[in-house]
Write a structure and sequence with these properties.
Elements lengths: L15 E5 H18 L2 E5 L6 H9 L4 E4 L2 H9 L4 E4 L6 H11 L3 E6 L2 H14 L3 E6 L15 H9 L4 E8 L10 H24 L6 E4 L5 H4 L7 E2 L9 H6 L7 E11 L2 E4 L14 E2 L6 E5 L4 E4 L10 E5 L3 H5 L4 E6 L2 E7 L8
Parallel strand pairs: 1-16, 2-3, 2-9, 3-4, 4-5, 5-6, 6-7, 7-8, 8-9
Antiparallel strand pairs: 1-10, 10-11, 10-15, 11-14, 12-15, 13-14, 16-17
Bound molecules: pyridoxal-5'-phosphate.
């Protein structure tokens, strides 16, 4: 069989994960332009993509660096030739630190920390192989996940990194994950600015102690607008804005939904139809998906291999195909092994999703 590239999407069987590249272009160009205008860097979170073909596509459109949630994602990026990588997470334990140190020998690798013992072990791992790891101290600006308290607590860690051979102190991360989906914009903005004040205050404190702070990074798709405009921030780190989902689209309508699952109607009765994609193809951890372009239809339930949709449209037939937009793009990418890049109804790229199903 020849390559399907250039052929219409309807030659594909279902369910099939699709990425509309015109929508990706529009989302990316919007954010790149805003970041350029505001003088901050855009680092794209690869946990939303997990697909190096798509990451390379973004790199060719102007993205310089990527964020990874886990080491395996960082390794996938470096293996694909994308060599400016920041693991925005704690990397802990001898086995992972050895992988981190080895990766730092092949690429520009940064990681974040919030623990003195972890820093000491990271330094030893880097020295062992002669690499240098860039390190950011994570500051908890309200998410209550990882990170040290804003202010004084970050300083001893910054000093320790600064004086540890094999490590290079790069700066600070403060991620406001608890705010991303807040529907009330005024509340989201107000809380975001409060957190940024704490983060940039911590930057000032470290600089006052004589340690240069090169990078202060944070924000996501829900808060990009305020984080990128805040004096003292140097970088934003969103991921979902690239392909989006219906939950994020409700709070950030400026980004279009590029990700969908093409599915076939396999059963039909008055008032409902059933599609051949369920919870094994569409993540429902952030809510119920929608059927693209059919606001009058309601997805009632996802079972493992079926989506049951309420619809009064009598013209729907078994064999019809629709596209489902999931409520959580990152978790949906993690369910699939490959995706298809489409443009104006034609297949443009076939990409493996190398980091899907990996948690290490
Ligand atoms: C550390 C970190 N930075 C940034 C993000 C932003 O991602 P998104 O734009 O998909 O909300 C996340 C999301 O989980 C994250 O964990």
């Amino acid at each position: 069989m020849g390559t399907p590239v250039g052929q219409p999407v309807h030659i594909l069987d279902s369910p099939q994960l699709l990425i509309d590249l015109d929508v990706v272009d529009a989302n990316l160009n919007r954010l790149l332009a805003a970041c350029r205008q505001r003088g901050v860097d855009l680092r794209v979170h690869f946990k939303s993509l997990k697909c190096t073909g798509l990451a390379r596509y973004l790199a060719s459109a102007g993205v310089k660096g990527f964020l990874a949630a886990k080491l395996n994602e960082a390794e996938a990026l470096v293996n694909a030739g994308l060599t400016d990588v920041y693991i925005a997470n704690q990397v802990v334990g001898a086995m992972k630190l050895a992988r981190l140190a080895a990766l730092a020998g092949r690429a520009s690798v940064r990681v974040c920390v919030d623990d003195a013992e972890n820093i000491a072990q990271m330094g030893q791992a880097a020295q062992k192989v002669g690499s240098t790891i860039g390190v950011l101290v994570e500051v908890d600006i309200g998410m209550n996940r990882c990170g040290v308290a804003p202010g004084e607590s970050a300083l001893p860690l910054a000093r320790q990194i600064h004086s540890t051979p094999g490590l290079r102190f790069v700066g600070l991360q403060g991620y406001d994950g608890h705010l991303q989906m807040l529907p009330n914009v005024a509340e989201r903005r107000g809380k975001c600015l409060e957190g940024l004040e704490q983060l940039v205050g911590t930057r000032r404190l470290i600089e006052k102690a004589g340690i240069p702070v090169e990078v202060v990074t944070g924000g996501g798709t829900g808060t990009w607008e305020w984080v990128s405009a805040f004096p003292g921030m140097t970088e934003i780190q969103p991921g979902s804005f690239v392909i989006m989902d219906c939950a994020y689209h409700a709070v950030r309508p400026e980004f279009g939904c590029a990700l969908s699952i093409r599915a076939t109607v396999v059963s039909k009765r008055p008032g409902q139809y059933v599609l051949d994609a369920g919870s094994k193809a569409i993540s429902r951890d952030f809510g119920t998906p929608v059927v693209k372009g059919r606001p009058q239809d309601t997805v009632l339930k996802l079972s493992e291999e079926h989506a049951r949709v309420e619809s009064n449209d009598e013209s729907v037939r078994v064999g019809d195909t629709f596209e489902i937009i999931p409520a959580h793009c990152c978790a949906t990418m993690n369910l699939h092994r490959s995706c298809v890049g489409v443009r104006k109804g034609k297949i443009e790229a076939l990409w493996p999703i190398e980091a899907s199903g990996r948690y290490d």
